[in-house]
Amino acid sequence: MIRYNYAEFVNALALYARTRLSAVDRGTLLIKITDDGSLLAGVFGNDGYARDAKARMEANLVRNRLKDLSANELGFALSPDGHTWAVLVKADWQPYQTATGRAFQMEMLKASLDDVLEGAWRAADGEPVKH
What is the rounded average pLDDT of the residues 108-131? Predict the structure, then answer.
């Protein structure tokens, strides 16, 4: 069994989102681990986390909603300048037997995380949120 340093991984994700995805305010992405073929998901916000209370609220709402998705937070990190936040996520669902089934499962997780992220952004902005 391979052990990963998720703290280091999520720090790299935050830095990647800050430097390579800086034009994107917030988003989700799927991450394939080449060592064992597993998939993780990343959620990030490029919205001034360190200086903006709404950005901090958005990140906290996302992190709290993960439990509703049967997903586990593997780590949370900020970019070195505190502008970008990132969460690394693993689904806690029953594993599918086929590669197609696993891919479908992860696409459904990504779609769910997209919905959570949009809802958290709206809630942090004071809009009512539908679950």
Answer: 86
**SS3 per-residue string spanning the chain:** CCCCCHHHHHHHHHHHHHHHCCCCCEEEEEEECCCCCCEEEEEEEECCCCCCHHHHHHHHHHHHHHHHHCEEEEEEEECCCCCEEEEEEEECCCCCCCHHHHHHHHHHHHHHHHHHHHHHHHHHCCCCCCC
Give dist(CA 106, CA 109) in Å, integer.
5
CA gap 47, 35 in Å, rounded: 32
List, for residues 97-110, the tens digit of each pLDDT value: 787 887 788 888 89
Which domains can be identified in the chain, with CATH numbers? 6-124 (3.30.70.260)
The label of the residue with tokens 């539908």 reads: 130
Radius of gyration of the chain (CA): 15
